[in-house]
What we know:
Layout: E1 5-7, H1 9-38, H2 47-72, E2 73-75, E3 90-96, E4 102-107, E5 118-120, H3 124-129, E6 137-141, E7 147-157
Parallel strand pairs: 1-2, 4-5
Antiparallel strand pairs: 3-4, 3-7, 6-7
Helix pairs in contact: 1-2
Amino acid sequence: MAKEVVVTREGYDKLVHDLDELRTVKRKEVADKIKVARGYGDLSENAEYDAAKEEQAVVEARIADLEATLKVARVIDDSELSGDTVSIGMNVTIQEEGEEPESYDITGSTEADMNLNRISDESPVGAALIGHKPGDEVDVTLPNGSIVTYKLLTVTRSK
């Protein structure tokens, strides 16, 4: 059985929207490209046809991936969120000694995006912070093997 994927309501809604967009819009666009490319004649030497078929494979793979994720997705309920303990759906402010504080939203793996300061509960920092409260010092083992200690300054619900 596939591993459960925990997501926020916002993350779940985005997955559903992306799947719908791929099924209704992108599939039709790719089918149209294939139809046009077939009109160019010999398919064995038709780069447009090859590119469209490759794009179709990517779209279908993404659809299958999203369907599989949604089957095992569990939307985190607001009642599961404690006001002062790190979990998915919470915003944390952490500080490494001598550095400026940094704030992150803790999300499920499907919602993580470092450009938006959203880290996964499965990332080294996210996993280490889960279950901790403000004031705790948390050691994080980074992928390169080094250990960084963060002080957990605040925990609030993500907006």
